[in-house]
Amino acid sequence: MYRIVILAAALLGLGACANQTADYCSARLGGNLDAAMMEASDRLANGCEYQFDGYFQELLAIAEANPDARNRMRFSDFLMRANDMDVISRRQAQSLYNRYFGVKFVSLQGDYNTCSQTCPQRARVLSNMQAELHDKELGLLRASNDQQSFYRADNLLKETELVLEATCSACEAGSRR
């Protein structure tokens, strides 16, 4: 009987530790952006790697509530720390940064043969770019208060739409010959 009580207490203790870790990892980040980023980095370094995407979205929300031109650099530093901790790869860090804070579109990068690869999926490519522009609006405009860069990205999307339309029309005309 005594062994059963000790075993039950030990199991309850282990369960409490598991709940504490889950609570630690899932607790909301608070405070200013710098403090929240340090808290997120600490959690990522202590077993909460699986929460990276959630932390990133929370940090974006905190930055949106407190727009500042320095937020771009803060996110760059945070992503590099996450890379240094092997939470995300260097490529993932660059892609996330560019998706939210870069003018160029990561959803269009690649070496495409426009007629054979991009034109057949033009609608999907443009839809992906439109979704990315929404992310750039959050990162560039609402979190970093960088209207000029956001409008450059918006214009780049419009120019890409025009160029793809003209190029794909030329490809279609050429294939009919």
Tell me what the structure shows.
Residues 14-20 have low confidence and may be disordered. Helix 3 crosses helix 7 (122-143), helix 4 (71-84) packs antiparallel against helix 5 (90-101) and helix 7 (122-143) runs antiparallel to helix 8 (147-176). It contains eight helices and no strands. 76% of the residues lie in helices and 0% in strands. It folds into two domains: 25-101, no CATH class; 104-177. The protein is mainly α and 177 residues long. The relative contact order is 0.09. The chain starts with a helix and ends with a helix.
Structure keywords:
177 residues, elongated
Give the helix/strand class. mainly alpha
State the end-to-end CA separation.
90 Å
Strand segment tally:
0
Hey, roughly how much beta strand do the residues contain?
A: under 5%
Averaging pLDDT over every residue, what do you get? Answer: 88
* Total number of distinct structural domains: 2
The DSSP helix count reads 8
The major β-sheet equals:
none
Rg calculated over all Cα atoms: 23 Å
Q: Per the principal axes of the C-alpha atoms, what is the gross shape?
A: elongated
Runs in which pLDDT lies below 50 for 5 or more consecutive residues are: 14-20
The H-and-E topology, N to C, reads as HHHHHHHH
- Measured as a percent range, the helix fraction is over 70%
What is the topological layout?
Layout: H1 2-26, H2 33-45, H3 52-65, H4 71-84, H5 90-101, H6 114-118, H7 122-143, H8 147-176
Helix pairs in contact: 2-3, 2-4, 3-7, 4-5, 7-8
